[in-house]
């Protein structure tokens, strides 16, 4: 048990120290480079090997072919465990994690992100 005099001394000493916590959401955090936040997909880099989809332990990735050499991806952030296995598996680096971490939602459908392939320029010619 802490004696009252020792406890008062601790309280008074902490009054003159800077706070141990940040005032989040007013002071946003700077995320480190290797932080595993929201995932982004670059359909231009994707070759459609589907290794990321096969390697995902949570089954959060679905890759669909939408044209010759064009693919779109659907990510279910509600299923994702942010293990980074997909980004390590992708040899073309089409998948990357961002520093965005405020992903909470009451609607599970809002946690599904679809990255569409860009329209094929050769089809219009």
Structure commentary:
The chain has helices at residues 4-15, 51-55, 85-89; strands at residues 39-41, 61-67, 70-76, 95-97, 112-115. The chain is an alpha+beta fold. The chain has a domain at 39-117: Alpha-Beta Plaits. It has a 3-stranded antiparallel β-sheet with strand order 2-3-5. It has a two-stranded antiparallel sheet with strand order 1-4. A hairpin with a 2-residue loop joins strand 2 and strand 3 (70-76). The radius of gyration is 23 Å and the shape is elongated.
Give the SSE layout.
Elements: H1 4-15, E1 39-41, H2 51-55, E2 61-67, E3 70-76, H3 85-89, E4 95-97, E5 112-115
Antiparallel strand pairs: 1-4, 2-3, 3-5
Task: Give a nutshell description of this structure.
The chain has a domain at 39-117: Alpha-Beta Plaits (2-Layer Sandwich), CATH 3.30.70.3270. It is 18% helix and 19% strand.
Key attributes of the depicted protein:
two-stranded antiparallel ribbon; Alpha-Beta Plaits; 3 helices; alpha+beta; 5 strands; 125 residues; single chain; 18% helix; 3-stranded antiparallel beta sheet
How large is the count of helical segments?
Answer: 3
CATH architecture of the domain at 39-117: 2-Layer Sandwich
Q: Which geometry do the CA atoms define?
A: elongated
CA(first)-CA(last) distance: 82 Å
Number of strands: 5
Q: Order of strands across the widest beta sheet? A: 2-3-5
The major sheet is characterized as: 3 strands, antiparallel
Low-confidence stretches: none
Instruction: Determine Rg (CA atoms, Å).
Output: 23 Å
Helix content: 10-25%
The helix/strand class is: alpha+beta
Mean pLDDT: 86
CATH fold-level label of the domain at 39-117 = Alpha-Beta Plaits
β-strand amount: 15-25%
């Amino acid at each position: 048990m802490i004696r009252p005099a020792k406890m008062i001394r601790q309280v008074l000493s902490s009054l003159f120290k800077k706070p141990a916590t940040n005032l989040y959401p007013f002071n946003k955090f700077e995320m480190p480079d290797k932080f595993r936040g929201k995932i982004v997909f670059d359909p231009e880099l994707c070759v459609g090997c589907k290794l990321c989809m096969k390697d995902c332990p949570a089954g959060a990735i679905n890759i669909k072919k939408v044209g010759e050499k064009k693919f779109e991806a659907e990510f279910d952030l509600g299923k994702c465990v942010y293990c980074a296995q997909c980004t390590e598996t992708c040899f073309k680096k089409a998948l990357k994690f961002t520093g965005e971490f405020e992903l909470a939602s009451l609607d599970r459908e809002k946690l599904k992100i679809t990255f569409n392939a860009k329209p094929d320029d050769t089809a219009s010619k």
